[in-house]
């Protein structure tokens, strides 16, 4: 065989291999796939498209080769003959959710002390079932497991969203023994390079780092085009913004900027200072303006701060997913918490934060959202992502804006907004089809039927059913 023939054949083989590879799924995945057609039309559906623009009724969406190929009034777009059709009358379509404070571990406290357990098998699937087609982990206890999961999902071997995997929480010694702490003079550069070389694409810093640490972390990460986010405490928001941090977690809930005489580089309890702070305090508005000028994005995570009284034991209807003995513990904890002074104080800060994030957003601040399935154990992957949409409405956002925060804004932060994040022609077919009119009743977010990831339609309920009683164990 001649040399060019060989090259030609190997290119051909490579191309075919690539195409078939991308479309192959293991049985573990294909069991949950209900739609895998190259051309499909979703007919007569209500569309909330993720741009923040007005809701459109009676729309047809044509999907072709994993892309959104046309969107328009029912009957007005060109449809190929005998195209497979889903009659979506009475249903709503939104873009696949893009959430930025996710974890693959679950908080399982022991005698009140924090402990996380990696939910290798349940959480990735639950995120997808809950409508999440792209997620960023914001810190990890087992970063290598997270990376492997990302790669196995990409190869079609596991059910789950596309993942932006972050470093382990970068932390000096704090209160969580499982975090991968930095000690003494160990090289931050070596530490970060190790993870970047493996394929990590985001950095998460935590409560007890120093200003010197943060300044180095940001420089090293930005030199490799990697963004840095933080759940801060030892460092104020203003200090972090001055160093060039990209993103702050838990919106203003982790700010120690208003603690009087805060010692430098020391984590102090900031809650009382935030509870006292007036929503319109000029110092707060000035900080908001400073963060906006420095182009810092805030991730709003109300799902991990939701109080107990008059609310669900496990948010978003997630109690069915918990292992029975953990549900029992959770119920006991819930009974102890409801109607307590502590819980009424939590409600006050929860409501205050809603006003702060609305204000920051109205001033032009960049806001993304995420669930943070840690805390007391009532926040579970998938169920919490759905609950988050309800909480955005409780916060005071319109449904159009809520969906934008949970889709396009996340895509823009991750730099993937030309590929996904809205329902627009030419974008990847990442969509959620849900039963009911979401604009009339936001709790319809819990009625997800199909979650399309890159044109492949997964059965949300079947995935959720498959993990019943397993969270906390697997
Ligand atoms: Zn977190």
Question: Can you give me a brief rundown of this structure?
Answer:
34% of the residues lie in helices and 19% in strands. With 474 residues, it is of the alpha/beta class. The chain folds into two domains: 27-93 and 426-466, Urease, subunit C, domain 1 (Roll), CATH 2.30.40; 97-414, Metal-dependent hydrolases (TIM Barrel).
Number of strands: 19
Number of domains: 2
Tell me about the largest β-sheet: 9 strands, mixed
Name the average pLDDT. Answer: 94
Count of discrete alpha- or pi-helical segments spanning 4 or more residues: 15
* CATH architecture term of the largest domain: Alpha-Beta Barrel
CATH fold call of the largest domain: TIM Barrel
Give an overview of the whole structure:
With 474 residues, this protein is an alpha/beta fold. The strands form four sheets. Strands 1, 2, 3, 4, 5, 6, 17, 18 and 19 form a nine-stranded mixed sheet that branches. The chain is globular, with a radius of gyration of 23 Å. About 4% of the residues have low confidence. The site of zinc ion (ZN) has 6 residues, from loops. Zinc ion (ZN) binds next to loops.
């Amino acid at each position: 065989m001649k040399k060019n023939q060989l090259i030609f054949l190997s290119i051909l083989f490579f191309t075919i291999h690539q195409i078939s590879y991308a479309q192959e799924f293991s049985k573990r995945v294909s069991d949950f796939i209900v739609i895998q057609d190259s051309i499909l039309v979703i007919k007569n559906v209500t569309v909330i498209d993720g741009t923040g623009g007005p809701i459109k009724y009676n729309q047809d969406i044509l999907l072709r080769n994993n892309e959104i190929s046309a969107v328009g009034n029912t009957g007005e777009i060109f449809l190929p003959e005998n195209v497979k059709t889903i009659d979506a009358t009475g249903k709503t379509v939104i873009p696949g959710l893009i959430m930025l404070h996710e974890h693959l571990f679950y908080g399982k406290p022991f005698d009140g002390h924090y402990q996380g357990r990696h939910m290798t098998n349940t959480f990735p699937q639950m995120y997808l079932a809950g409508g999440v087609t792209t997620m960023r982990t914001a810190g990890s206890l087992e970063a290598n497991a997270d990376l492997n999961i990302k790669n196995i999902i990409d190869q079609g071997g596991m059910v789950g969203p596309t993942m932006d995997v972050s470093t382990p929480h970068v932390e000096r010694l704090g209160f969580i023994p499982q975090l991968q702490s930095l000690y003494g003079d160990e090289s931050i550069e070596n530490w970060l390079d190790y993870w970047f070389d493996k394929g990590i694409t985001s950095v998460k810093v935590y409560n007890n780092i120093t200003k010197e640490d943060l300044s180095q972390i940001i420089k090293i990460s930005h030199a490799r085009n990697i963004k840095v986010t933080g759940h801060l405490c030892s460092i104020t928001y203003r200090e972090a913004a001055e160093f060039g941090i990209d993103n702050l977690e838990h919106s203003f809930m982790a700010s120690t900027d208003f603690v009087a005489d805060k010692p430098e580089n020391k984590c102090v309890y900031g809650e009382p200072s935030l509870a006292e702070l007036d929503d319109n305090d000029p110092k707060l508005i000035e900080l908001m303006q400073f963060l906006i000028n420095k182009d810092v994005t805030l991730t709003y995570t109300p799902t991990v701060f939701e109080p107990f009284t008059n609310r669900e034991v496990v948010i978003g209807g997630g109690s069915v997913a918990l292992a029975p003995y953990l549900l029992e513990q959770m119920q006991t904890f819930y009974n102890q918490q409801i109607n307590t002074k502590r819980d009424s104080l939590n409600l006050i800060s929860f409501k205050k934060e809603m006003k702060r994030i609305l204000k920051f957003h109205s001033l032009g601040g960049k806001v993304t959202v995420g669930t943070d399935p840690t805390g007391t154990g009532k926040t579970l992957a998938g169920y919490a992502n759905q609950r988050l949409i309800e909480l955005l409405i409780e916060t005071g956002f319109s449904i159009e804006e809520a969906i934008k925060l949970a889709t396009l804004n996340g895509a823009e932060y991750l730099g993937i907004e030309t590929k996904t994040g809205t329902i627009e022609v030419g974008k990847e077919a990442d969509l959620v089809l849900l039963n009911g009119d979401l604009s009339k009743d936001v709790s319809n977010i819990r009625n997800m039927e199909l979650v399309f990831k890159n044109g492949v339609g997964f059965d949300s309920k079947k995935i959720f059913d498959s993990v019943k009683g397993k969270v906390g164990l697997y």
